[in-house]
Amino acid sequence: MCLAVAIYFESRSEPIQGKIAVAEVILNRVESSKYPDDICGVVKQQSRGICQFSFYCDGKSDRPRNHRAYLRSMYLAELMIEEGDYITVLGKGVTHYHAEYVDPYWCKSPTMTRVAKIGKHFFYETK
To answer: Per residue in 73-93, pLDDT tens?
Structure first.
């Protein structure tokens, strides 16, 4: 459910490639030793009181309101968990993204390489 909720809130208005990319980032973090080793741990992770995924601590309800979009998110989450190695748009090293309307400090780090823009999000690989 954590992956489905994250896909829903982070990318429900994005094209399917954007939804897959968001799921990939979360799953790539699960596989990395730098992050929690389960999906809910990654989605709910905070660093210095700041959530890694903005929807989780924005003060708004985390209950999906658009039933159809949430069903799509649940289906995609299940598919990514079951078949994620075969469904990819980014690759294994991509662990970060942000919306085009923000400019986070971390994206200027020499360890970050922008690898894609999908919909309204930029995606980054960690060196």
So the answer is: 999 999 999 987 778 899 888
Tell me, what DSSP letter sits at residue 60? S
Taking only the tens place, the pLDDT of each residue in 96-118 is 999 999 999 999 999 999 999 99
Q: Exposed (0-12), middle (13-18) or buried (19+): which is 57, by Cβ within 10 Å? A: middle
With CA atoms as reference, report the closest residue to 43 among 85, 80, 78, 7. 7
Cβ distance 23 to 33 under 8 Å?
no
Nearest to 53 by CA among 74, 75, 35, 80: 35
Task: Using alpha carbons, list the distances in angstroms from residue 52 to 36, 65, 80.
Answer: 12, 22, 20
Q: Is 19 exposed, middle or buried (0-12, 13-18, 19+ CB in 10 A)?
A: buried
Q: Which residue has the tokens 């991509």?
A: 94
